[in-house]
Amino acid sequence: MDDGAPMDDEALLTFALALPLAGSDDVKTASGRLRRVERADADVIGNLYWLAYPPGIAACDLQDAIADIHATFDGKYGAFWPEGSFVVEVDRTVVGVALTVWRAPWAGTPDGPFVVELFTDPGRRRRGYAKQLLAAVATAASMVGEDMIGLRVDASNAPALNLYRSLGFHEI
Ligand SMILES: CC(C)(COP(=O)(O)OP(=O)(O)OC[C@H]1O[C@@H](n2cnc3c(N)ncnc32)[C@H](O)[C@@H]1OP(=O)(O)O)[C@@H](O)C(=O)NCCC(=O)NCCS
After folding, report:
1. What is the CB-side half-sphere exposure of residue 37 using CA atoms within 13 A?
2. Which of 94, 126, 142, 166 has the smallest number of CB atoms closer than 10 Å to its CB?
């Protein structure tokens, strides 16, 4: 989870996206079924969280991963914003997740909703699911009058950096 540990804070870049998201109609065409996250999804999300990262990067084991997702719902990384948090499903299986807090608890983060976790099924990447999830977060934030959303990313995470830049996120 993006709390600065176990990742080195020095390696984290903070990004913001000005709203509304340009071209969001295009990215809604990915084939997954998008819905708001529910608390009942926490264990399933924890399992996917464990699979989504190399071992030791986000969590030390499966139980740790599941516990961290429950802690996210409980506000460990800022007040959880369920209306701005989404899963994407294929054949009733969760294949991607975006978890968002109302405001990040870390200094230097933008004044807007903040995506504290975003990940997709390793076997179903490059199918547009992460874009679809971020477009949904951006739309939800626009609908409640927010001007921007933010997130943090490790400077070595090339797939995520490409994804964010392709959507118009800029480093702050
Ligand atoms: C980063 C991540 C969420 C992207 O998920 P995804 O569903 O594969 O992303 P999308 O299919 O929506 O990709 C959209 C765009 O992002 C960029 N992108 C995604 N994966 C990429 C990769 N491996 N290499 C280069 N660019 C990539 C591309 O621009 C891509 O568009 P294209 O496929 O048309 O070229 C996924 O790789 C992941 O879960 N990684 C592990 C967890 C993680 O690092 N999360 C981010 C934490 S900040």
Report:
1. 33
2. 126
pTM: 0.94
- Ligand 1: centre distance to CA 102 (Å): 24
Q: For 58-107, how does the pLDDT look when each residue is reduced to its tens digit (9 = 90+)?
A: 899 999 999 999 999 999 999 999 999 999 999 999 999 999 999 999 99
Which of 97, 132, 163 has the most ligand 1 atoms within 8 A of CB, as the residue to mutate?
A: 163
Alpha-helical segments (H) within the chain: 24-27, 42-52, 62-73, 129-143, 158-167
53 domain residue, yes or no: yes
Q: How many domains does the chain have?
A: 1
Range of the domain at 147: 9-171
d(CA 114, CA 30): 23
- Site residues for ligand 1, CB cut-off 6 Å: 52-53, 96, 118-120, 125-131, 153, 157-160, 162-163, 166
What's the CATH code of the domain at 56?
3.40.630.30
